[in-house]
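haha ok so turns out i had the wrong file open the whole time. this is the CORRECT one, sorry everyone. sequence first:
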Amino acid sequence: MGLLLLLGALSLLAELDDTLGPALDHPAIHYDRGPFQDPIAVLNRKLEQGQAQLQFETPSGYLRSVLHALNVPVESQIAVFSKTSLQAPLIEPRNPRTIFFNDSVVVAWMKGGFLEAAAHDPQQGVQFYTLEQRSTARPRFQKGGDCLRCHVGDATLGVAGMVVRSTFTASDGSPMLVYGGSLVDHRTPIESRWGGWFVTGAPATVRHLGNAAIGSQGDPKAMDPLQARIDTSAYLSPYSDAAALLVFDHQMHMVNLITRIGWDARAAVWETRPDVDKLLAGAAREVVDYMLFVDEAPLPGKLTGANGFAAAFAARGPKDSKGRSLRDLDLQHRLLRYPCSYLIYSDAFDALPAGAKSAIYRRLWQVLSGADKDQKYARLSAADRRAVMEILRDTKKGLPEYFR
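then structure:
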């Protein structure tokens, strides 16, 4: 269940030395207890108190109403045709599973199935939910407990988190595990991404694994273009936008990193570990390297998108005094024009324990100021560092004084 997006052999495992995170029932975590403050838990309380309503419509059921209630843009739609999740029997190239997202929520829908959702709780990590697609006077999201069978492990850094994979599929969407696959984030080369996904807005000159399946010859190096005819009138959008896919690939791993350092900090303090500062400094290195796109795979060509996602994403700001934003997309050489993750503005980042947040800020300063001379940071130009610093000074509340 949940939002296991693609099955396949694991690669590109997390770089943290210890991927075995604090247990979900650790006294400092209590993953299942709450109190929950994720967007879907908040929406559920509003539904119970009569402060919100969901409208059912054909054929998408509660989907449009849920997206509106959670402030998730329709332009974020991406589509996966690989047979995954509990609803695998329904998924195939002619009936793909569509996914919508914002900074803290992911919602998945397909014809004939139920809604799946994952929401990033600022304290508890990613929480999983389902919503039945039948009209009722009191619609409510239910916890999707079975999701944790796939959403806690090496692929999620040992916390309750998100997984994105690329794999080879047969023409009916069945994963062909014998050919392997890979975990996906912004470090993954584009030519290895999007196996099992539909992709729109990418020119033919950009090689990737989307929009194709292994044919009867069984050769993953000579995949056949999908010939599926999709009734797009049943969907909220006819797109599975390349720009949205790139942002999604980055964001899901960033969510896991934020959750992991937060759990580590809380567990270490509860256990009164003497090495807590060293632990958090090491974790902060991983967080900041990823946050600053130090190992980002370059884009092989311009990916313009096709449905207005880039503009809608950038419009969410915030912008600095020069009109710049960490949400401004580049899409020609790299994902972001100014290489620093916009999730630094997220509720989950702001809710990090003080020790974790201080460690991240110290590491950010070391890299952006040029104090760390390691050659791996050479790809961050002086202009990039200066721009990111200026944007953060103008837009990020709670920034330490030494950034000024």
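The radius of gyration is 21 Å.
again sry for the mixup
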